[in-house]
Amino acid sequence: MEDVYKLVEAESANMEGPEEEEEEDDPECNNLHHPLLKRNRTLSSSPLAIVGAKVSYIESLDYEINENDLFKQDWRSRSRVQVLQYIFLKWLLAFLVGLLTGGIATLINLAVENITGYKLLAVVRYIEQERYLMGFLYMAGANFLLTLVAAVLVVCFAPTAAGPGIPEIKAYLNGVDTPNMFGATTLFVKIIGSIGAVSAGLDLGKEGPLVHIGSCIASLLGQGGPDNYRIRWRWLRYFNNDRDRRDLITCGSSSGVCAAFRAPVGGVLFALEEVATWWRSALLWRTFFSTAVVVVVLRAVMEYCKSGNCGLFGKGGLIMFDVSGVSVRYHVVDIIPVAVIGVLGGLLGSLYNYVLHQVLKVYNVINKKGKLHKLLLSLSVSIFTSVCLYGLPFLAKCRPCDSSLADSSCPTTGREGNFKQFNCPNGYYNDLATLLLTTNDDAVRNIFSINTSSEFNVFSLVVFFALYCILGLITFGIAVPSGLFLPIILMGSAYGRLLGLAMGPYTNIDQGLYAVLGAASLMAGLPFLDAHPEPWMRNITVGELADVKPAVVTLNGIEKVRNIVEVLKNTTHNGFPVVDCGVTPPTGSPNGATELHGLILRAHLILALKKKWFQQERRRTEEWEVREKFTSIDLAERGATIEEVTVTKDEMEMYVDLHPLTNTTPYTVVESMSVAKAMVLFRQVGLRHMLILPKYQAAGVSPVVGILTRQDLIAHNILSAFPHLERSKGHKKGH
């Protein structure tokens, strides 16, 4: 949903030499006897991901099951009880994810409602005493301090806690590693920062951060705690792999949405439609179980707080769309204004996204200047917000209370209510103050309220809509945890209610329902990740991509230690094909053949060096030797580097049998496959590596043409290697 905050950039190497003049051909019409495209001979790119305020090189995750000898032996040796225990632990972790997410969401809501409530009560007292300047100074000062706390935590301790975190979660579940996104420090800063930013009255919501918080909880549970204080229980180490961690984070993201809106089915659908790119039925039930636990926790807390044991919590920020007991009546003619709302929502949403992109470009320039500039930007937005929220209600005219209402409901002088008195005399209320001098959650309740057709006038709704458009544009992108859900809801509800006022007697739909429809329509202008390849990708084969990449680095099944060390030190590749030469195939070729045994990961090579898996002669090891040295749990460990390995001079001349550690069933494609087809497979299966095999196997030729990774399938990188395609696209558009 909120991909507009994070940008992914790719830096391509400068291409040397003069560019040849080529005939502008239609890429759809290529001669089958000639290469599809003219191309540069190098595909060199350094994709960078902007995560929070840090720039990191993109790394992929190993979602693929590594079917090496140890993995197969482990599954063969597992008893039925161990398999059931593994399944039970998956459900137990899903339960804990829901329980902790619901508990932390409750804590955030309690803190926000109480901090904001006591702040607004103090401001109201100053207004009742007509000490308007003191009221403003108190409100602006409190908001300034709350924003300062949130911004300092983000800037100094966890830059990845800025923003909603949803784009990074989508990237992670799609197979892209997002560094430092799910750590304990990020979780702590996200919680405290969300409380501070929302309590400061900034135009942002806690809904996006709650999704990130749920994902952090799931990640920490799966790995046994923070990096420096992990629990090393044997049963927990079974989940120390990217595949199971992905499932847990999917449960965490859906639990976060459920905690924000108290909608268990909505949380599951959000994970299914917006976040996860790989899904199965077992995961569907576990995510629903997690969201159900969240709902139970929230309901229990709300029942407890009804007795007044939670301070100013009241209803809290947990029910935003409670339509129980409401009957909706409409006629066929009402379809027309509903359709108009949809069209306006799409147009306004697209315009909002465009302007927001331009604002974020400016913020990116400011944020690059250092931590002080990030803090000053956040605090400037806080001061401007306080001035608007406090000052604009003075522009609205006081409206008389409806005589049919009880004296206790109009006007109100507390922090809640649909008819706030503000600076008005008794018997009158200020409708703009009702929307601005309150929490964002209460503002949603007020503007969604039914049977209040005359509560808000046009001027107040226009001011409210314009203000939240401006505040939404300048707030999203500062160095605090923030989300776009609530600002979009507030903007959409304002113009939806305006349309309801315009329709007046011509419709049977309540204005509160118009506000709900407006909020829903504006949220659908927001983009989602397109899973389909570009049409021109079908004109390029994976073999041609392999031609413009550096030569693939292969290892022998029994390799010398020196060669392994040199490969690890001189390359950054994560996987290496393992080949065996002189193998006699089943057909009985007398000259022998070169066999592709599989793919070995960088982490497993480092593990073999650290455990001194060396031997004096070139030979295949026995199964019992492997079991004595390694376990399948050892292969799940990540994070080791070649710099941590110490190898003596004598050990450099020894050998390592790589066969037991090699994935013998990697995903492979033929070199004639189109890039479009390979990209679909790569995304849907969640791969990190895809081996390219030759269509014809000649004697003495390597059985591997190349390896495809995520970076190779980025459209920008492909076009940088095939400039002819870019010009052909432009030529075709010109005609």
UniProtKB/TrEMBL annotation:
Pfam name, any one: CBS
Residues annotated as domain CBS: 662-726
Stretches for region Disordered: 10-32
Single Gene Ontology MF annotation: nitrate:proton symporter activity
Keyword Transmembrane on entry: yes
Family: Belongs to the chloride channel (TC 2.A.49) family.
Name assigned to this protein: Chloride channel protein
